[in-house]
Amino acid sequence: MSLLETSGLAAFYGDFQALYGVDLHIEEGEAVAIIGANGAGKSTLLRAIAGQLRAPAEHVRFAGMPIGSLAPSRIVRLGVALVPEGRRLFSSLTVEENLQLGGQCGRRGPWTLDRIYRLFPMLAGRRRRPSTALSGGEQQMVAIGRALMANPRLLLCDEISLGLAPIVIRDIYAALPGIRAEGTTVLIVEQDTSRALGMADRVYCLQEGRVTLEGAPAELSRERIRLAYFGV
Predict the structure, then answer these.
(1) pTM score > 0.90 for this model?
(2) d(C-alpha 15, C-alpha 36), whole Å
(3) Residue pLDDT, tens place only, 164-182
(4) Nearest-5° angle of CA 11, CA 214, CA 221?
(5) Bridge-partner residues for 13, per DSSP?
């Protein structure tokens, strides 16, 4: 049984359809990347998995349980946490208060404030600062830490490198092995194809809301990826 499975998953924004029959599976302990151009449906897919877009219950299954129709708060308590695009920290709260919010669901596990500060040491000295006083990279670390405080079995990461300097992106991606070592499965949306191929056990490519390619990075040639990515 896969940890996560979508079957024929469709998603809509009003009358606009953004996903068309997406099938994917993620095994416990894997790191899986979703690649594709802007507007391909990558963020929509994560939002549908996290319950921010409703779907028929059976179209999204987590640890064998149909969750497509559940509210986001229920899905978090089951063990799925989302790091949203743009971070979406609470500007009126300190770094530590933002992190503590992630633990409100009450799930037990390895992730505590101390463990987050070991993962991202620079946050320890900034714990009392407002989140708005941090750099973009530091804010991204807080967003990841907040999601980990929910002690998820599955961590969904939406464009965590977007708008950041290369050295900051390197530091954030360097934390992923430590996250996986705690038993957390990772599903990450990434526009940087090279970075996605470098961190993932398997890759899915979306184009216009449909899966156009799936496989292990070693099996995928640049030409196959280009065709799946652009459709030309």
Answers:
(1) yes
(2) 23
(3) 888 888 989 999 999 999 9
(4) 135
(5) 16
Going through the chain in order, the beta strands assigned E by DSSP cover 4-13, 16-26, 31-35, 60-62, 65-66, 80-83, 154-158, 185-189, 202-207, 210-215
Q: Cβ contacts of residue 77 below 8 Å, gap of 6+?
A: 105, 106, 107
Other C-beta atoms closer than 10 Å to the C-beta of 91 total 10
- 54, 99, 90: which is closest to 75 by C-alpha? 54
- Give CA–CA dist 110/40, Å, rounded: 35
Do 32 and 25 touch, CB atoms closer than 8 A?
no
Over the stretch 9-46, which tens digit does the pLDDT of each residue have? 999 999 999 999 999 999 999 999 999 998 999 999 99
Burial 188-220 (b: 16+ CB within 10 A, else e): bbbbbbebbbebbebbbbbbebbbbbbeebeeb
